[in-house]
Structure formats: structure tokens, C-alpha cells
Amino acid sequence: MMDPITLSLKVALIAVCIDFVFGLAIARSMARKEFVGKNIIESIIILPMVLPPTVLGYGMLILLGKRGGLGQMLMEQFGIQIIFTWWAAALASAVVSFPLMYQSAKAAFASVDIFLEQAARTLGTGEMRIFLTITLPLAWPGILAGLVLAFARALGEFGATLMVAGNIPGKTQTIPLAIYSAVETGDDELAKTLVLTITILSFAAVFFLNRWSKKKVQVWRKGSEAHVESRNI
Amino acid sequence: MLRAEIYKVLPGMTIDVKLAFDRGILVLFGPSGAGKTTILNCLAGLQKPDNGLISLGDHVFFSSTDKIAIPARQRKIGYVFQDCALFPHMTVKDNALYGIPSRCKKDGGYRMSVIEVMEMLGITHLQNRYPAQLSGGEKQRVALARALMVEPDLLLLDEPLSALDFATRKSLQAELKQLQRVWQIPFVLVTHSRKEMHTLADEILFLDKGCQTGYQRNDKRYPKLCVAV
């Protein structure tokens, strides 16, 4: 049994981890490459942002259900059922929030000066080291913004989660679903508490991640500002 | 001996040059859009010629007939970019050390330590600063230090002095010449300044719209070693 707050945090964190891994890999390869069909692929990636969550939920239900291609394979091969578990909620949140992560990461990678990567190549550096030491640190503020947005979106996900994970108290009932149930049953006190909780959680996530990113990542920018100030004096 | 035959079709222009060069400073001179930077990029391995051959000594970096195309990271060619391309999130020292594998940072094994190179270029006192805290001349010196730290066999410089004021440009011109004599590797330098060309060049390749329009050598410096193509 898990309370809605713990479950929501768990679901949102796992969703963001999935978004981070796939978002980074896909955004990196899409940012600098031009190929036939790129527009179609990008449109498919962005689609979850514009489609109603219930449509996505229905699609996932078809795919992950007992008679769905992936769901049936997972059940037969490994005895795993994803549908109506909190894993389904995490997957639904990951799919819905993915475009936010992808768009931010792609813009961040595209903004990294290509000459810096080329300079690193002429210094004998391999592609993986260039990515880890040049591209990723310079793109990090944009990637972090994507993570924050994806986390906030995943935390508030409702429609798709309801379709694929249901609204099972203690098992798949996240904060938005619990608010819905509380309002339905006329439990205003619980609804207000949960609304306040999710608002504080979302605000805290955005506030602290932004603060941390400024401290951690932009030391060199602060240094340059200090230098400009000292020059002006 | 650096040998290059580069044929590359670009939108609106075709680059077709041949050069052979042994030591000293070769200046690629021409107006903007003459293809100077593309030639440097081909030498460095950042762009591929459509046809041709690029070799340095016994090492063939590119050969269209033998289908050889050694990637930039394996060529040991230093490159100082026009805008320096210093890594903005790293200090001067980290920039200078970037091309040196971590095992070598500990064990040495390089001709000069990072401190020696930085002392030679007069940037030791800047080692804990970030690129955004440097002047144009300081940035160029750091870019030079970074390129030289990996002990390249050839150094390419793309208009390294174009963005500097007169005094800094003059002092860096002298430093570059001195550096080439100390380091004893060929430098290929791109410029569109006639004054800079005359000050720095041991040999000059004139370019216009991708084609070489002339070749000139300074016989006083290397009377027997220059090869005009």
C-alpha cells in the first residue's frame, strides 16, 4: 500500500529517468543530422504533447493489454503484467512528458557551438569523451529545464494514467487521481490537502532544480560577469 | 613534408589546390570566400575533399584513390580556430590540458609540461580564469597553448590575429614566428591581411575563389627547402 504522494513521486521520478535516457539519445542524434523522414519522426515524437491523454492511454492499453502485442509477449515470456500496476502509470507519465524533455534537449544540443566539438576532435578526443566533457555540460542548462518540465508534467498526469493503470487506491492512485476521487466522493478536505501538496511539490521541484543548476553549472558565467564588473570599475 | 592535393566542390565554388611545404610558416592568402578555411578543415580532417591526397611525411591522412580518410583525432594536427573555440566551462589550465590523456598528466612523457607551455606563452597567471574573463590576445595564447600541448606535427591557424587590436596583433605576430622556430613544426596560417602575410610568411599560397592564383617563397629563409608546385 502506497499513499498517493509517495506513489506520485515514485511514478514521476521513474518517468523522468526514462525520458532522460531516451530523450538524450534521440535528441542528440536528431539535433545535428538531416535525413529523409526526419520531419515524420519528429512529428511522431511530439504527438503525445498535442494528443488528448486519453487517446495515448487507449493506445497504450491496446499495446500493453493482455491481448496486446507487447503485453501478451511480456506475460507469456516473463509472466509480467504491466497494465493496472504502478509501472503502467510510470510508462504513461513517461510517454506524455517525453516531448517536453525531447524538445528542450534538442534545442540545448543544437545551441552547443559545433566548433567546440571540432576543436576537441583535433585534440585527439573520441566522440564519447567529447559528448561527456563538452556537449553535455554545455547543453546541461537546457536539459535540466527539460527535466523539470517533464517531472512537473509527469507529476500531474491524469488521463493516460487512468486508462492504463486504473484508479486503485494504494496501488495506482496518484495525487491527481486521488483528487478526482476525493471530489467525486465529496471529501473536500482531502481534495484541498492533495491540491496544496501537489502545488508545493511542483513549485519546490522547479525552484530547487533551477537554483541548483545556477549554482552548479554556471560558475563560469558568474566568473565572467564578475570580470566584466571589475573591468567597468 | 606536407603534401596536399585538394579538390572539393562547394555550393557556388570549386576548390582545386596543390601544395607541398616543408617547414616554416605557409600563409594561405586570399579574400573572404576564397576557400582558405575549407582547405584548413580538409588538412585537419574536419572536412573531406571529393578527390585528392593529403600526407605529412610518411603518414597519408587522405587518399581518394586508396580510400584512406584518417579521422581528425588521429592526425596529430593542431588547429587554432578563428574565434579560438575555447571551452567556455573550463578554466585556462583545463583547456590547455584537454588534449592530454589523464595517464600522461600524471606520468609526464610530453616534451613540455603544461606550466612550461603556459610560461612560454605568458599565460601562467591566467590558469584559473575562464575564457570569458580573457582578452582577445589572451584567448589566442590559450588556444595556442591548447593546440601545442598535444605536440602536433603540424599547426593550422585560421586568421588567428584578425580580431585583435594593432598592438596585440604585432606582439602576437612576433610570438608566432618565435614559436614556430622553437617548436620546429610547419605552420599553415590563413589571413586576408597583406601586412600580416608579409610579416609572417616563409611561403605564400595565393587563393581566389577556390583556385590558387600564385605561389611565392621567401628564399632568404629556406633557400633550398621550398618546393613550388
**Backbone structural class of chain A:** mainly alpha
Relative strand content of chain B: 25-35%
Which term fits the overall shape of chain A? globular
**What is the assembly state of the chains in this entry?**
heterodimer
Summed up, the helix count of chain A is: 11
Note the run of SSEs of chain B as H and E: EEEHEEEEHHHHEHEHEE
**Helix percentage of chain B:** 25-40%
Give the percentage of residues in beta strands of chain A. Answer: under 5%
Number of strands of chain B: 11
* Chain-averaged pLDDT of chain B: 85
CATH architecture of chain A: Orthogonal Bundle
* Rg from Cα of chain B: 17 Å
Structure description:
- The complex is a heterodimer of chains A (233) and B (229).
- Chain A is mainly α.
- Chain A has one domain: Orthogonal Bundle (MetI-like fold), CATH 1.10.3720.10.
- Chain A is built from eleven helices and no strands.
- In chain A, helix 7 runs antiparallel to helix 10 and helix 9 runs antiparallel to helix 10.
- The termini of chain A are far apart.
- Chain B is of the alpha/beta class and 229 residues long.
- In chain B, a hairpin with a 4-residue loop joins strand 5 and strand 6.
- Chain B has seven helices and eleven strands.
- In chain B, the strands form two sheets. Chain B has a six-stranded mixed β-sheet with strand order 7-8-9-3-10-11, with helices on both faces.
- The interface between A and B is medium-sized, with 22 and 29 residues.
